[in-house]
Amino acid sequence: MSDNDSIESFIEACQQQLERAEKLLDQPQQLTLELEKFDEFIKVTWPSVAEKINASVMTFENRSNTEKVFQRIKKLELIAKSRTKMLDGMAEYMERTK
Q: How many domains does the chain have?
């Protein structure tokens, strides 16, 4: 498998995991769990992908798709953080009103 094929496989795997996570936007706890799994996937696979990126010239399409994946990750992280904080705030309020 060429470096660009490996990079493309990584991008496709990221896109699939992001699609699963995006379907959980209305379920904050499951979203957080899905993002934790995705984070673990990135930790395991990114180092070898980064080496391949450095060792070769990425195709325009792979570069563009990688940037899109990073933007989707940032967006999901912001959503997950804000929803978790909101739920924590609601839980604290309920505890204080008992």
A: 1
